[in-house]
Recover the amino acids of this structure.
């Protein structure tokens, strides 16, 4: 479930489109950090891929410190996507 929508004043009409996207991206990353790492939350077959995507997004957003618990949760398992976006998935994951 996505986080609740913010009230209108937080997102003024005059903000550039990229600024609104950044706002939502940060909200989604925070939501993933708060909920996905809870024990028993991700129990489906693609949980490692989902956590890998969250780790990748956090790293690309400059939040490497926030990505540490996500890396611990995947236990060193690497999925090709999204890590292969910038080269060899194992090399990208290890950075």
């Amino acid at each position: 479930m996505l986080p609740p929508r913010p009230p209108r004043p937080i997102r003024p009409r005059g903000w550039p489109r990229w600024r609104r996207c950044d706002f939502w991206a940060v909200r989604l990353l925070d939501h993933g950090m708060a909920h996905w790492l809870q024990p028993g939350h991700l129990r489906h077959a693609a949980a490692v891929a989902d956590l890998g995507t969250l780790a990748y997004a956090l790293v690309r957003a400059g939040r490497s410190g926030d990505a540490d618990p996500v890396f611990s949760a995947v236990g060193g398992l690497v999925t090709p996507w999204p890590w292969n976006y910038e080269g060899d998935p194992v090399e990208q994951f290890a950075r």
Summary: Residues 17-35 form the longest helix (19 residues).
